[in-house]
Amino acid sequence: MVRRPNWLSFRRFAAVTTALTLSLITLGVYTSATGSGLACQAQWPLCSDQLIPALTINPDFIEWFHRVVAMITGFFILGTAGWAWRRGDRRTTLAATGAVVLLPLQISIGAITVTLNGLLPWGYAAPTHAAHLIVALSIFTLLSLTTIYGYEKHHRRPPRLRSKRALGVALGALVVSGLFSRGVPLLQYSPGAQAWYYASSLVAVVALLATMYWLADVDPLGRRLAGSALGVVFVTMLIGRDLIVYTPTVQLLNFGLYLAVIGLVAAGLWRLVDTDTPSATTRLSSEQSE
């Protein structure tokens, strides 16, 4: 029997799986934005009658590479769920199993997108893009929760300090996403910019999920602020996939949502910093004693 090395723990394996899923979603956005999703002569799992296309940067290779990363990530998701079942923790098992349950649906939508796109009215259209992204975000959210649960007993800092740092990460990630966002007209919304936008937005998603979990029994208002910010981030990510005609009005809405999420995260961070001051700590202690 092969013995598992000490450094290979469930929480680290789950974190790697979550990171792989983040990379896969980012790569999927880039693949779609470059039009490479329509490559490979609408074949799946083959690509232009080949198992492995020419290893040069071209639409066929980008689509094929996306499929390879998706396959590897899928095995990691299955492994995470299997390990969670062995651990026996109910929350972790439910979250990891939920990701596995959604996996066949995501694969099916992806296969339809790259094969039947021209044959079905909804093959390569906004509804399919929306479904593909929503399922991907759902899987990513469940895996993020699996990782957060896995680290539950390995924290040395109190929940408030953890949450303050997480909100700081979220704020930084959102500032970066704003540089590449279509709603903030600073840079051209190129395929590369779209990939960076979604990568940084997904980092913010993880940080906000962690904040919501850690503040559940500590600061209900801070938790609601983080939850509201998370909802707005999801909406802006959906808008960024051209699911609706991107008119100047939609761009203004997108910009307004971006300012809103920055405000929500900043308010949550200010609240935690304010309650960490000596006077605030004394006030909270006196209120609890009463």
Spans of 5+ residues with little confidence (pLDDT < 50)?
279-290
Q: What is the residue-mean pLDDT, rounded to a whole number?
A: 85
Report the biggest beta sheet as strand number plus sense, adding barrel if it closes: none
Count up the domains: 2
Helix content: over 70%
Query: What is the overall shape?
Result: globular
Give the gist of this structure.
With 290 residues, this protein is mainly alpha-helical.
Please, could you describe this protein's structure?
The chain is mainly α. It has two domains: 1-154; 157-280, Four Helix Bundle (Hemerythrin (Met), subunit A), CATH 1.20.120. The chain is built from nine helices and no strands. The model is unreliable at 279-290 (pLDDT under 50). Its main location: membrane. This is Cytochrome oxidase assembly protein. It comes from Halonotius terrestris.
Name its key features.
single chain; 290 residues; mainly alpha; Four Helix Bundle (Hemerythrin (Met), subunit A); 2 domains; 9 helices; 72% helix; globular; heme biosynthesis; metal-binding
What's the topology here?
Elements lengths: L9 H24 L25 H29 L2 H26 L10 H25 L8 H22 L10 H24 L5 H20 L8 H28 L2 H12 L1
